C-alpha cells in the first residue's frame, strides 16, 4: 500500500469459493492504481494486487487448479496518477504490465482521445502480447494509415493444470464517442463476421470466456449469449463485464453466468467454476496424468469433484486485511519483490506529480450519490450553488456585458466524492478528470434557455428517439452506476435535519452490533462456515444483491443508502450589478463540452436555431477539474502546514 494509505479495518469476511477454474477480475480501474488514500476499505494498491495474484496463482498450482487474471478496460482517466502527468499515463503504463494478466480488452475511456488509443496500440497491446483481445475494435495504424484490428479477435488456449480448453473473446459495447482513429464495430455486426461464426462452432471448447467493457445487463451481452447458445446449447459460458462501475453477477442459464467487478480498484472480483470438462487433458502425456492423479489423491481438493457444473463469485474489498486473509499470508509474507517494487514506483510517481499537495481542507463530506440532491452534503449542490457561480460567473460576458448566464453540467462529469479533510491535487482529478472545457451559446431567448434543464432531466420526447437518432445516449448524462439501472436508490429523498443525522449516527453503532450478532447466530443455525470473525464491527460499504443472492461481498458491511441524482444540474451566473440583466430577454447558455450535442438538440427542439459552431469558449474553455481546483484553493485554502 502507499505510505499515506489508511490501515485496513478488520471486518467479518466470507471465504473465497475456490473451484476447478478460478478468476481474478478488475475493471474500470481508471488510474486508481495507487489505491484509495482516504478510504481504508480500498487502500491496497496495484503492487499489492500483484503480490496477491502471485500468492493465488501459487495456491492454484499447489492445488492443481487454474487461475486466470482478467481486466475489462477503462484503465485510464479518473485519478491524478494517470491524469496529472504529461503525457498522461506516463507512470501507469510502466507499472500496469508488472501484473500478469491473461485476458484483457479495451474500455471506452481508452478511445475518447486519439493519443490514448495509440497508447493502447503502441504500449499496452505489446506489453500484454497474447492476452489482449479486440473482437470488435480496429485502429488506423499511424505508420501505415491502414485500419487493422487493435489486437487478436479471439484467443483459444488450454489451462495449464486442469487442461480446460477455453475460447475467449473481448468486446467493447456499441460506443460512439471515440476519436476518429478507431472504429468500434457494433456487436450486432461483429457476430456476423466469419471469425466469430467459426469460433462459436468450435466443438473442442470446454468453456467460452466472453470478456467485455460491457454492462452485464445490456443488449450487447444478451446478443452474444443468444448467438453463442444458438450453436453451443450447453457449453458453459462465463462473461466478465464492466463499464457501469457496479458489482454485479448475472445468471443467464445454469451454464452461463457473468461477473462485473465494480470500479476504481475498490473491488477485486473472484469467480470460480467447477465441473468443467477437461478436453485438454485427453492430449496430455502419461506423466501429466500421473501428476494430475497425484494432485487429486494427495490434496483431496473438493473443487475437483466432477459432479455437475457450478459457478460461484465473491467481490473482494481491495484492502490488505482481505488480501492477507484470502491469500493465507500476513504483513511479513504477503509482499512479493515485484509487488513491493511496484508500490514504491507508484509512491515516487505520486511524489513527482505532487499528488498529495494540499489545495485546501474540505469542511465535511460531499457525496455524489450518498446524499440526496439538493442537500448540504450533496456534491452536486456544492458544485451548482457554490463552485460554478463563483468560478464561471467571473467570465467577461457576465461581468462586462452585464449578462446573466445559465450554466448546465451533467452529473456524470462528477466521478467521486469529497471527503472531510485534505483536498489534494489528486482530489480534483478524482472528482472530475475530463479535459473537456466550458463553452457557451450566446444570446438565447431566456424562456427557451430555462426549459433546457427540464428537458435534459425529464425529456422523454427529446431524449428517446431524437437524441438516440444522433447517437446521443441519454444514459451518458448521469454517472455510469446510475445508468446501469442496478443502483439500489433510496425510495424517497428525505430533507436533511442535522439533529436527526446525529441521532442516526448514535443508533448506527447499536444496529451494527445487533446485525453482526444476528449474522453470527444465523450462520451457525444454518450450519454455514463461520465468517472469519463476526464479532468485528461493521463499517459502511457494499452490500451487493445480485442474481446469486446477497452473499457476494467478501466483507460484511453496514448498508449505505444511495440516492438518485438528476442527469444535469444548473447554476445561475449573475452579473455583480444585475439591474440590467435581471429582465433581459436573452441569456447565455453555458455547458461543459461533453454535453454540447444534447444542449444544441434541446434548443433546436424548443425552436431555437442554433448549431454547435455558434458556441464560444467560456471562462477560457477551462475544464471542470481546473474550475474545482481553483475554487477549493480560494475558498478552502489554509495557510502553511496546518492540519486540516
Ligand atoms: N468528457 C467527458 C467524458 C465522460 N463523461 C462522463 O463519463 C461517463 C462515461 O464514463 P465511464 O467510466 O462509464 O465510461 C459518461 O457517461 C459521462 O457521464 C463526461 O462527463 N465528460
TrEMBL record:
Positions of the UniProt region annotated as Disordered: 498-532
Signal as UniProt keyword: yes
Compositional bias (Low complexity): 506-521
InterPro entries found in the cross-reference section: 5'-Nucleotdase_C_sf, 5_nucleotidase/apyrase, Metallo-depent_PP-like, Nucleosidase_C, Pesterase_C1039, YHR202W_N
This protein's GO CC annotations: cytosol; extracellular region
GO molecular function per UniProt: hydrolase activity
Single biological process term from Gene Ontology: nucleotide catabolic process
Pfam family, one: NadN_nucleosid_C
Ranges annotated as biased composition (Basic and acidic residues): 522-532
The UniProt record lists the keyword Oxidoreductase: no
UniProt name for this protein: Metallo-dependent phosphatase-like protein
Species the sequence originates in: Lineolata rhizophorae
Amino acid at each position: 500500500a502507499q505510505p499515506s494509505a489508511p490501515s485496513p479495518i478488520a471486518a467479518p469476511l466470507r471465504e473465497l469459493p475456490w473451484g476447478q477454474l478460478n478468476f481474478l477480475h478488475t475493471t474500470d480501474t481508471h488510474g486508481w492504481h495507487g489505491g484509495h488514500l482516504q478510504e481504508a476499505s480500498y487502500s491496497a494498491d496495484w503492487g499489492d494486487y500483484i503480490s496477491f495474484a502471485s500468492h493465488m496463482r501459487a495456491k492454484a498450482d499447489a492445488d492443481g487448479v487454474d487461475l486466470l487474471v482478467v481486466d475489462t478496460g477503462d484503465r485510464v482517466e479518473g485519478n491524478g496518477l494517470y491524469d496529472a502527468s504529461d503525457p498522461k499515463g506516463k507512470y501507469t503504463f510502466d507499472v500496469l504490465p508488472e501484473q500478469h494478466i491473461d485476458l484483457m480488452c479495451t474500455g471506452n475511456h481508452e478511445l475518447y482521445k486519439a493519443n490514448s488509443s495509440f497508447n493502447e496500440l503502441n504500449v499496452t497491446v505489446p506489453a500484454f502480447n497474447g492476452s489482449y483481445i479486440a473482437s470488435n475494435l480496429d485502429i488506423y495504424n499511424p505508420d501505415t494509415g491502414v485500419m487493422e484490428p487493435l489486437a487478436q479477435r479471439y484467443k483459444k488456449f488450454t489451462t495449464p493444470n486442469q487442461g480446460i480448453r477455453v475460447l475467449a473473446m473481448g468486446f467493447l459495447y456499441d460506443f460512439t464517442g471515440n476519436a476518429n482513429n478507431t472504429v468500434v464495430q457494433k456487436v450486432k455486426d461483429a457476430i456476423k463476421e466469419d471469425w466469430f461464426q467459426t469460433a462459436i462452432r468450435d466443438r473442442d471448447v470446454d468453456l467460452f470466456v466472453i470478456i467485455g467493457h460491457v454492462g452485464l445487463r445490456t443488449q450487447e451481452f444478451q446478443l452474444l449469449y443468444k448467438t453463442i447458445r444458438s450453436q453451443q446449447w450447453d457449453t458453459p459460458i462465463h462473461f466478465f463485464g464492466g463499464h457501469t462501475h457496479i458489482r454485479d453477477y448475472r445468471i443467464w442459464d445454469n451454464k452461463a453466468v457473468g461477473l462485473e467487478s465494480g470500479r476504481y480498484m475498490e473491488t477485486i472480483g473472484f469467480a470460480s467454476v467447477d465441473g468443467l470438462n477437461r478436453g485438454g487433458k485427453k492430449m496430455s502425456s502419461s506423466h501429466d496424468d500421473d501428476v494430475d492423479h497425484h494432485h487429486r489423491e494427495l490434496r483431496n481438493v473438493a473443487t475437483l469433484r466432477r459432479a455437475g457444473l457450478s459457478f460461484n463469485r465473491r467481490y473482494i474489498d481491495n484492502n490488505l486485511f482481505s488480501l492477507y486473509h484470502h491469500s493465507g499470508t500476513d504483513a511479513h509474507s504477503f509482499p512479493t519483490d515485484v509487488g513491493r517494487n511496484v508500490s514504491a514506483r507508484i509512491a515516487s510517481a505520486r511524489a513527482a506529480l505532487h499528488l498529495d499537495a494540499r489545495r485546501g481542507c474540505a469542511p465535511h463530506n460531499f457525496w455524489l450519490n450518498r446524499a440526496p440532491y439538493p442537500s448540504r452534503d450533496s456534491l452536486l449542490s456544492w458544485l451548482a450553488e457554490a463552485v460554478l457561480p463563483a468560478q464561471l460567473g467571473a467570465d467577461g460576458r457576465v461581468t462586462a456585458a452585464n449578462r446573466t448566464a445559465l450554466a448546465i453540467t451533467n452529473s456524470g462529469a462528477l466521478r467521486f466524492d469529497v471527503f472531510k479533510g485534505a483536498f489534494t491535487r489528486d482530489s480534483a482529478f478524482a472528482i472530475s478528470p475530463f479535459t473537456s472545457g466550458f463553452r457557451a451559446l450566446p444570446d438565447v431567448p431566456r424562456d427557451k434557455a430555462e426549459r433546457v434543464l427540464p428537458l435534459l432531466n425529464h425529456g422523454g420526447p427529446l431524449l428517446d428517439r431524437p437524441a438516440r437518432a444522433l447517437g446521443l445516449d441519454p444514459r451518458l448524462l448521469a454517472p455510469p452506476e446510475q445508468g446501469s439501472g442496478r443502483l439500489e436508490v433510496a425510495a424517497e429523498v428525505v430533507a436533511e435535519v442535522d439533529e436527526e443525522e446525529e441521532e442516526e449516527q448514535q443508533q448506527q453503532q447499536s444496529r451494527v452490533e445487533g446485525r453482526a450478532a444476528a449474522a453470527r447466530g444465523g450462520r451457525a443455525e444454518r450450519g454455514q462456515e463461520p465468517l472469519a470473525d463476526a464479532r468485528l464491527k461493521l463499517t459502511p460499504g457494499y452490500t451487493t444483491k445480485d442474481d446469486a443472492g446477497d452473499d457476494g461481498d467478501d466483507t460484511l458491511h453496514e448498508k449505505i443508502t444511495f440516492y438518485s441524482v438528476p442527469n444535469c444540474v444548473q447554476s445561475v451566473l449573475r452579473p455583480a450589478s444585475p439591474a440590467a440583466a435581471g429582465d433581459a430577454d436573452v441569456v447565455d447558455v453555458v455547458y461543459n463540452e461533453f454535453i454540447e450535442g444534447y444542449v444544441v438538440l434541446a434548443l433546436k427542439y424548443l425552436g431555437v436555431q442554433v448549431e454547435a459552431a455558434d458556441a464560444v469558449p467560456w471562462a477560457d474553455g477551462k475544464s471542470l477539474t481546473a474550475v474545482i481546483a481553483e475554487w477549493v484553493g480560494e475558498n478552502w485554502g489554509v495557510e502553511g502546514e496546518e492540519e486540516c
